[in-house]
Amino acid sequence: MVKSLTTIVALMATVFLAPPTALATQWNPNIDGHLQWQGRHFPQAGLRPEQVDNSHSLSLNLQGYQDFFDGRSRLAFDVIARQDFNDDARDLFDVQELYWWYQTENDLEITIGNRIVFWGVTETRHLVNIINQSDQQSNIDQEDRLGQPMVSLLTVQSWGNLEAFALIGFKPQEYSQRHSRFAPPLPVEPSLTRYQASRDDDHIDWALRYSHVIDIWDIGASYFKGTNRDPRYIVQAAPKGSVSEAGTLVLAPYYSQLEQVGIDLQATTEYWLWKLEAIAGQEKYQGRNENYRALVAGGENTLYGIFNSVADLGLLFEYQYDNRSYTSADNDLAIGARLALNNAADTSALLAMTVDLDNHSQFISFEASHRLNDVWSIASEVRVLTNTSPQDLSFAIRNDDYIELTVNRYF
């Protein structure tokens, strides 16, 4: 952790304390961040005796930016460092954003550097959000992402926004260790990682996105060609010199190439939000071309001013379909409720349950957050797997329910 914090300070000094005076008449960067403590408790004993029952971590997130040329250019910075004191697989140092943005005189926007790009409209799963690698060790909901080096060009026109991406390099997933919760039945051996691309993790991926708002419709369409962010796993024997004992069975990650088109739609009416994300593509895996398709579709109805108060209650449902064999969201239904108290403390809560319509496995999720004052906030999270079927991919982590408490200090 000390090394990570030292690296952050060095980066901050390099980027913000030694400005190129030729580019700025006044150097006054905006810098903020927060320190976070997070604790987790797993009520059930792990499937393996070495798995931890409790963990706690500290993380530091720093953000900053400096504008130039009357706001037509920006240097931005966002870095995170995390240390888990019980599970070093969750340790992280990631430069999530460190990029230079410039808007030309004809309003073409050019961005070079690390960025996190979010696409999608649905609540329970973001199928079209394919640019960044997910931070699997942060949360199993795949909402947290890692920075991706890229060059992008964006044009904003009356007919919509069009952005092209060249994604330079690839970040493989970080894998849980045998003592970690959410670990697979067999250990993952990172030294056996293979790529279909001839340049391995130096392969350049390409993406294109169009978005527009027409009346009540928010429309997005995307294209991606490159390395799949989710690996397949091949069972094989561990070689000599690997982390696992030689000859034992391990999982070897394999990152295939894919070509994918996606669409995301949201219709906003007086009381309803109607949402859709759908993808279709072809993945090249072990010499075969595999076609796939998936979608998430549903809606959210908001009841304003419930019980004669200022609070709002949103009721949501989404259906998930995916014909790929390595995902558990193949034929699932999610229902939930979102409560927003609309108070000064910005108190909110979300309760959702997802049910597999084939094997009846259930996943229950609860999230809540509350701001204590201008500098302190707290959040809680509960994840429960119940009625888990042996045919479901979540069966391997069926005992990994957890309760989480997070405390943030902003500065």
Task: Please explain how this structure is put together.
The chain is mainly β and 411 residues long. It has a domain at 304-411. Helices cover 4% and strands 53% of the residues. The protein has one helix and 21 strands. It has one helix at residues 2-17, and strands spanning 30-41, 54-68, 73-84, 92-103, 108-115, 148-157, 160-168, 194-195, 204-214, 217-227, 232-237, 249-255, 257-268, 272-285, 288-303, 312-322, 331-340, 348-356, 362-371, 376-386, 402-410. The protein has an 18-stranded antiparallel barrel. Strands 8-12-11 form a three-stranded mixed sheet, with no helix packed on it. Strand 4 and strand 5 (108-115) form a beta hairpin. The longest helix is centred in the first third of the chain and has 16 residues, at 2-17.
**Number of separate helices:** 1
Q: What class, by secondary structure content?
A: mainly beta
* Amino- and carboxy-terminal Cα gap: 20 Å
Helix content: under 10%
Order of helices and strands: HEEEEEEEEEEEEEEEEEEEEE
The largest sheet is: 18 strands, antiparallel, barrel
Q: How many strands in all?
A: 21
Mean pLDDT across the residues is 91
The proportion of strand residues reads: over 45%
Radius of gyration: 22 Å
List keywords for this structure.
single chain, mainly beta, 3-stranded mixed beta sheet, 4% helix, disordered N terminus
Give the helix/strand layout.
Elements: H1 2-17, E1 30-41, E2 54-68, E3 73-84, E4 92-103, E5 108-115, E6 148-157, E7 160-168, E8 194-195, E9 204-214, E10 217-227, E11 232-237, E12 249-255, E13 257-268, E14 272-285, E15 288-303, E16 312-322, E17 331-340, E18 348-356, E19 362-371, E20 376-386, E21 402-410
Parallel strand pairs: 8-12
Antiparallel strand pairs: 1-2, 1-21, 2-3, 3-4, 4-5, 5-6, 6-7, 7-9, 9-10, 10-13, 11-12, 13-14, 14-15, 15-16, 16-17, 17-18, 18-19, 19-20, 20-21
